[in-house]
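Changelog-adjacent note: as of this version, every example in the card shows the full chain rather than a window. The one below runs 172 residues end to end.
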Amino acid sequence: MATSHPSTSIEAREETGKSICVLTHKSLEVDEIIKSVSDDGAGATALFIGTTRNSYKGKVVTRLEYQAYSKLAIKTMTDIIRTAHQSVTHSAHHPTPAAVPSIISCALHHRLGTVPVGEPSIVIAVSSPHRKEAFVACEQILEEVKQKVQIWKREYYEGEREEDAEWKANSG
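Full-length structure tokens:
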């Protein structure tokens, strides 16, 4: 199936410090994303993979389609990563010198275009000296992406006309 992408739904990439945000039409390579946040100082890497599921409210989902206002979405994604770096602090059970960051690196990749059932649409990886901070940052990033990033999802259902596919806001 040939797909055309709206001119605003373009690939984008932005790096900030040791972290990276990516919007792409290509399949997300989970192992490469994990490697991108690896660091010898990391005692933990938290990972979230959001995939296209095969059903929603009793309907059979055949695929999802994502569109974005990429120029703004990539900036919003980068702001979310910066906020995670600043707001996730060392947990009380691991008092670490202030010179050691609570978050070492983050990667936030979101797919655009058609995403078949079973394939990842979003991958978030966070490395940290300790597990708690990595988990907290990973969840914070996911929730903020769902609330703030200018990405829209369209669900296609089995037995329904293509033009009846539903657009859904990217919300929690």
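Structural remarks: The chain is about 25% helix and 35% strand.
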